[in-house]
Amino acid sequence: MRNHRSPLPRFLDRLRPAQRSDSDSGAAFTEIAAVTILVGMILLAVYQSQVSQTFNDAVREMVCLVEGPECGGETWTEVERPPEPEAYEWNAMNSNTADNQGIGMAIAHNYGWSDQEWNCLDDLWTSTSNWDHTLVDPDTGAVGIVGFLSAEHGDMPSGFAESARAQINWGIDYIDQTYGSPCGAWSQWQATRTY
Fold it and tell me: Which of 18, 27, 133, 195 has the smallest set of CB atoms within 10 Å of its CB?
């Protein structure tokens, strides 16, 4: 029976330097040069073929998915990327929300309003300012918890911009006189974004 040996070990044996004569080492050098040229020709053929272009396009697309529109090509990320958020976020959470809600609840209680009316007042002022008495709407200039403008709502009392209690007192009094209850003001706000 004949012993079949894989061609790879025989090839590797040829690449190993051995104790050979000068003519054998020249043949080994020629074989290495031929293999190197063959590998180079294969790489060149792959590079010039459509396979190479497809591979390069796939890599470029993956890079664009990470880098986004700045990568230079039109990619799906440019179409589906959400708009960049604005630098100023009106109604953002603030550290004094709970304190100001407590003041509001105590003052609203003095008006004899029901729990439903408190919920309407809370919804209204959470929507306008998230109960932040220091807030100024950059678009309209509306001030504080109540989100009022002096041009539309009359003159504000002294210290209005700095005092949560002043804003809440003034706002609840305005709501009581204008709408009779917070739920009336909340309904107006939901319909028009003003009250």
Answer: 18
